[in-house]
Amino acid sequence: MRWIALILLLISPYAMAENAEQARAFSEGRYSEAVQLAQADHTPDALAFSARSLLAEAMSAENYVPDQKLAERAEALARQALEQAPDHIEGRLQLAIALSLRAHPLSNREAMRAGFGEEARDLVESVLSDNPDNLYANGFMAVWHVEVRRRGGAIGASFMGASTKQGRKHYQTAISASPGDASTHWQYARALAALNSNKFRKEIEATLQAALDSPTETELERVMQTRAAILLKTLEQKGRRPTEKQAKDML
User: Rounded to whole angstroms, what are the CA distances from 70 to 6, 230, 237?
Assistant: First the structure.
């Protein structure tokens, strides 16, 4: 069994990019160029932006298998941002995402030994402690609760303090802040579909449709929206087992 991989690339590039050229490169999916443009700066914002660009590239893989070297580079950059500014919100969130990607290919035991899952969760909870309504931290925790419930079962979820009810609460908080965020809708729907596509079918369909109805301003958002369309088609045409398998494979 693999440990929880919570993949939410939701931070606005415009909030972290040092200039419009960097933001444009990210928005258009030119991630390597975005990193190069940011390399001249060593501010926490620039470092977090570079980490986010690397993670976006890793997550855009057509086969849904993120490049671990990109994740490792992103982790290093996010840690550098936090060395300069320990309370930097984007730095904490990007580090949490990088750690989740690092955990993705590992077994539960391997990832637990590495501490990736716990550190990622603690980072995001620290953001929520500072900013309870943070869109991206709530989106992350929405998926965390559902994934823990799926991978750990009822007993494991109880031990970790996770529940689908809490996941739904975080999701509702996130979309209250930004109803048209395609990535938030997509990631929550994917997690629910992997858990039980029959039990949560109506909620999954509505959430995937919300992702499809959301405006997309970046290439990354378009990738997430395309994945939402693929999963919705599988749910409608092939039923439970293929849907759950596909949802587990996708990120």
Answer: 16, 25, 35
Query: Are the C-beta atoms of residues 69 and 55 closer than 8 Å to each other?
Result: no
Domains and CATH numbers, the chain: 1-130 (1.25.40), 134-251 (no CATH)
Query: b/e per residue, 135-166, with b = 16+ CB within 10 A?
Result: bbbbbbbbbbbbbbbbbbeeeebeebebbbeb
pTM of the predicted model as reported, rounded to 2 decimal places: 0.90
Give pLDDT tens digits for 113-137.
Answer: 888 878 999 999 999 999 999 999 9
What are the angstrom distances between the C-alpha of 22 and each of 32, 94, 97, 137, 235?
10, 17, 21, 24, 38
3-state DSSP assignment of residue 121: helix
Cβ neighbours for 4, distance < 8 A, ≥ 6 positions apart: 100, 103, 117, 144, 147, 148, 151
